[in-house]
Amino acid sequence: MLEIRGLTLRAGGRVLLQDLSLQVPGQGITALLGASGCGKSSVLKWLAGILPEGVQAEGEVLVDGQPRPTGDRLLAYQPQNDALFPWLTIAENAALGLRMAGVSAKLATARVLPLFAPFGLAGTEGLYPEDLSGGMRQRAAFLRTMVQERPFVLLDEPFSALDAVTRLKMQTWLLARLSATPRGGLLVTHDLQEAAALADRICVITAGHGVTLPVDMPHSERTEAAMAPLRETLKSLLLEECPP
User: Fold this and answer.
1) For every one of its 244 residues, what pLDDT tens digit does the chain have, with 9 covering 90 and above?
2) Considering its fold, how many domains does the chain have in total?
3) Which domain holds residue 101?
4) Is the pTM of this model over 0.85?
5) Are 138 and 162 in contact (CB under 8 A)?
6) Which helix (H) or strand (E) holds 237?
7) pLDDT digit string (tens) for 82-122?
8) How far apart are CA 117 and CA 90, in angstroms?
9) Whether residues 100 and 157 fall in one domain
10) Which segments cross the bilayer (predicted)?
11) Quick one: DSSP state of residue 221?
12) Half-sphere exposure of 153 (CA within 13 A, CB side)
């Protein structure tokens, strides 16, 4: 269990987030939902230990009840864009997280290459990012994140740059990957539909605070009609910050 306790974020004298507490179980997806500028991405950056200069944070991180530092090795962070280096091959990009963790180039490559087929990337090992579609680049970014085998993954709007069809395919693919290699995911999104479709629990940031809702329905039963009440509840929470 990953736990955030009492997180407050300030920037330029403005409070972005006030006393956020949130639990992320070690399996399934917890979505962090909110309007632009409410501090969602900053929560992930704080956890990853890369909070931008000028943003101050107060709060505590715990894993299984034990305090942990931000930037902890138990957390793998994936930024909003794929962040692939254009001068590296896809195999080299995918192995980069392991290399930065001190794994030798030979061992990192040996661990990455068998995963190209399961991640739908077979045949792209020697290509460069410019040779791949947006969806394929995103899969390469996921491979780089997941191969580190850390118990928790932090995903910052990983599908926002994709077209609607590719986004839907990647959402389905992500659920399958997290089911095949169970770990806890904290997903930042501003998309009500995405949160309702993917998450096992949803934390809505509104007026600087967080409200967490469980999503008890199996993914196989989450039709458009079945999820409509949840989307309306989420919309109502988000609109509390912006009354007419």
Assistant:
1) 999 999 999 888 888 888 899 999 999 999 998 877 778 889 999 999 999 888 899 999 999 999 999 988 899 999 888 889 999 999 999 999 899 889 999 999 999 999 999 888 999 999 999 999 988 998 899 899 988 889 999 999 988 878 888 888 888 888 888 888 778 999 999 888 888 889 999 998 876 677 888 788 888 788 888 888 888 888 888 776 544 3
2) 2
3) 84-149
4) yes
5) yes
6) helix 224-239
7) 889 999 999 999 999 899 889 999 999 999 999 999 888 99
8) 13
9) no
10) none
11) G
12) 28
- Integer CA distances (angstroms), 59 to 17, 24, 35, 82, 140, in order: 11, 16, 22, 28, 33
d(CA 1, CA 7): 17
Of 27, 153, 162, residue with least CA distance to 82: 162
Assess whether 190 and 222 both reside in one domain: yes
Verify that 166 and 118 share a domain, yes or no.
no
* 108 and 33 in a common domain: no
Buried b (16+ CB within 10 A) or exposed e, 17-50: bbebebebeeebbbbbbbeeebbbbbbbbbbbee
167 & 91 share domain: no
Confirm if 112 and 148 have CB atoms less than 8 A apart.
no
- Structure tokens of 114? 């068998």
Q: In sequence order, what DSSP letters do the residues of 151-168 get, joined into one string?
A: SEEEEESTTTTS-HHHHH
Copy the structure tokens of residue 25: 């179980």
Q: In the 8-state DSSP scheme, what is residue 51?
A: P
Q: Please state the three-class secondary structure of 193-217 as a single string.
A: HHHHHHCCEEEEEECCEEEEEECCC
Q: Which residues pair with 75 in a beta bridge?
A: 152
Instruction: Check whether residue 244 and residue 174 sit in a common domain.
Output: yes
